[in-house]
Specification:
The chain is α/β, with parallel strands linked by helices. 29% of the residues lie in helices and 17% in strands. It is elongated. The N terminus is likely disordered. The structure holds guanosine-5'-triphosphate (GTP) and magnesium ion. Its main location: cytoplasm.
């Protein structure tokens, strides 16, 4: 057939120079290593490498994709019978974005449909459709920066992020379409923790190097880390002004996560706007509006460690206007601290019908929090009164056990003062009174000074000792990858998705599937990221997609119902 080329042209194209041969040998080894035990011949590897100009990542992803397709087609008949949705797999393998050099693999570029799948632009970053110059035509890259796990960087008080915690976002390159075009992908691979609590999770490389694709054994890495210290997401909830941010800001300071200079600066700046008492709260209340108004508005996220646990701390807002933020933070939490203000009249206003104490406790319980530490705070204001403490414990315990269904054995009550620091990390001792004096030169006031005598009735543990004993939930790290997408946005060059890692694990360069719809994608990068909003897709393991259903049973918790809810109620 006359295609305009003569034999010499072909012969010339297929001859490798010495340099290319050496490159091919190295790259072949790399791809072999990336593919592990996968059954792929050297010829197939080298064809893919040739096609991709020795780009190891692209070749490996292409080959992985091809393998997955072979497996799928073997299962196709069964899948059809059961009606399980599957990615449409038409046609040939489709490495895209590389110009054809060899005649062997001849992928075709398919039109991208990913934009229709991920078309929820949102400035808060979730999915991002990337369309940068080097993106192969017909591909989408997502950035699902995953949240909870993996960030190996230790965040200090100064480096926190706001918003819904526990979410993750990933950058992914989707395949061109649900028709199963393959999705050669670029990045390299670091690991990505999953389904687990944040700081501690597994590792979390956030950068793609463009080379290499060394995968880590996530399960054993996770087990190793967990055996060192368990990870927990801890949300701090309670009525507005109960002292949540102050208590946690002070705790972070006492734990060395925030230095004295920072606190002194907060104190000076807060004083200037007449809010000196908010110096510790400013550790977590970082925005100008929050500081000016003296309230938390968005969930403040930071990390800290105790002797036996790693915590991702979520400081929720107490003001009723920001309940949606409190819910998104609490939804990520494993355990909670409920802070109540012991001041006369204040506990009551938080606990009664319009207060947030009950509502937050009920929400936490219905969102899956089982272990609750109740910090009976501002005890300095009531002169460390045991009677007041017992009164509050009694009322709360009854409500939490009877109405909110907490197990009594999962409740711990701790009397403390977030402001003076009493019983957060230590107790006052003669000559060493906890009075916040590390941040203030003010003389110890009468209430605080009386702590030695009037608080001597308490013999129990400190707040930090208590949370250091909380149980960490078991993470389903060994299950197939599942990440519910809560936000998606487009950006330059790809698609970014954020959500919660529910199970399994994922690494950069891995092929994933977006259900329902069966869209294929490859993870490009992962980051610890921001707050989820809503979307509803589930990212999952290609070889084990989540089943799709038209019916589901849900347990819905409703508070303060004014009108009876009946069948057909809109
Ligand atoms: P929101 O996030 O807006 O719901 O408030 P919050 O619960 O985080 O309260 P925040 O820490 O902002 O504190 C509110 C006020 O209570 C500030 O003026 C604090 O100084 C004060 N406060 C907090 N804890 C204590 C305490 O233990 N004793 C005393 N006396 N005052 C406290
Ligand atoms: Mg606050």
């Amino acid at each position: 057939m006359d295609d305009g080329y003569d034999e010499e042209d072909y012969a010339e194209e297929q001859t490798m120079t010495e340099e290319e041969q050496a490159q091919m040998a190295d790259a072949t080894e790399e791809v072999k290593e990336m593919l592990g035990n996968a059954k792929v011949s050297i010829k197939e590897i080298q064809d893919a490498l040739w096609y991709y100009y020795f780009n190891v990542d692209q070749a490996a992803v292409y080959l992985i994709d091809e393998l997955a397709k072979k497996q799928k087609s073997a299962q196709a008949a069964a899948v059809k019978k059961t009606g399980t949705p599957k990615p449409t797999q038409s046609g040939t393998a489709t490495p895209v974005g590389a110009s054809s050099k060899s005649a062997t693999a001849t992928p075709k570029v398919k039109p991208s449909t990913a934009a229709t799948v991920l078309n929820v632009p949102n400035e808060d970053d979730v999915f991002e459709v990337l369309e940068d110059d080097d993106a192969p035509v017909g591909q989408l890259r997502f950035d699902l920066s995953a949240m909870n796990f993996g960030s190996s960087a230790k965040l200090t008080g100064a480096s926190k992020s706001k918003s819904g915690a526990g979410s993750a976002s990933l950058k992914v390159t989707t395949s061109s379409s649900a028709t199963g075009g393959s999705t050669p992908l670029v990045t390299s691979g670091m690991s990505s923790p999953i389904g687990s609590a944040p700081p501690s999770g597994i590792s979390t490389p956030t950068k793609s190097s463009g080379k290499s694709g060394k995968k880590i054994d996530v399960v054993s890495e996770y087990q190793k880390r967990v055996s060192e210290k368990e990870s927990l997401n801890l949300v701090v909830i309670g009525h507005v002004d109960a002292g949540k941010s102050t208590l946690m800001g002070h705790l972070l300071y006492l734990q060395g996560e925030v230095n004295e200079r920072t606190i002194r600066k907060h104190e000076r700046d807060a004083q200037k706007i007449g809010k000196a008492s908010f110096a510790f709260a400013w550790v977590l209340d970082e925005t100008g509006e929050e500081r000016a108004r003296g309230i938390t508005m968005d969930v403040g996220v930071t990390k800290f460690e105790t002797a036996h646990r790693r915590f991702t701390l979520l400081d929720a807002p107490g003001h009723r206007d920001f309940i949606p933020n409190m819910i998104s933070g609490t939804a990520q939490a494993d355990v909670a601290i409920l802070v109540v203000d012991a001041t006369t009249g204040e506990f009551e206003s938080g606990f009664d019908a319009n207060g947030q104490t009950k509502e937050h406790a009920l929400l936490a319980r219905s969102l899956g929090v089982q272990q609750l530490v109740v910090a009976v705070n501002k005890l300095d204001v009531v002169k460390w009164s045991e009677a007041r403490y017992q009164e509050i414990v009694q009322k709360l315990e009854q409500f939490l056990v009877k109405d909110a269904s907490f197990k009594k054995s999962n409740l711990v009550f701790i009397p403390c003062s977030g402001f003076t620091g009493e019983n957060l990390v230590k107790r006052s001792t003669p000559g060493n009174i906890c009075n916040g004096s590390a941040v203030s030169d003010a003389s110890v006031d009468e209430n605080v000074a009386s702590v030695l005598q009037t608080f001597s009735w308490y013999k129990g543990p400190t707040l930090i000792e208590t949370i250091d004993k909380l149980d960490a939930p078991t993470r389903a790290v060994e299950k197939p990858f599942r990440m519910s997408v809560t936000d998606v946005f487009k950006g330059t060059g790809g698609v970014c998705a954020a959500g919660r890692l529910e199970a399994g694990h994922v690494q950069v360069g891995e092929a994933i599937m977006i259900m329902p719809g069966g869209e294929l994608a490859v993870v490009k990068t992962m980051e610890v990221n921001d707050e989820p909003t809503s979307n509803g897709s589930v990212l999952c393991a290609r070889e084990s997609p989540i089943p799709v259903t038209t019916h589901f049973a849900a347990q819905i918790v409703v508070f303060d119902v004014k009108i009876p809810i009946t069948v057909g109620f809109p």
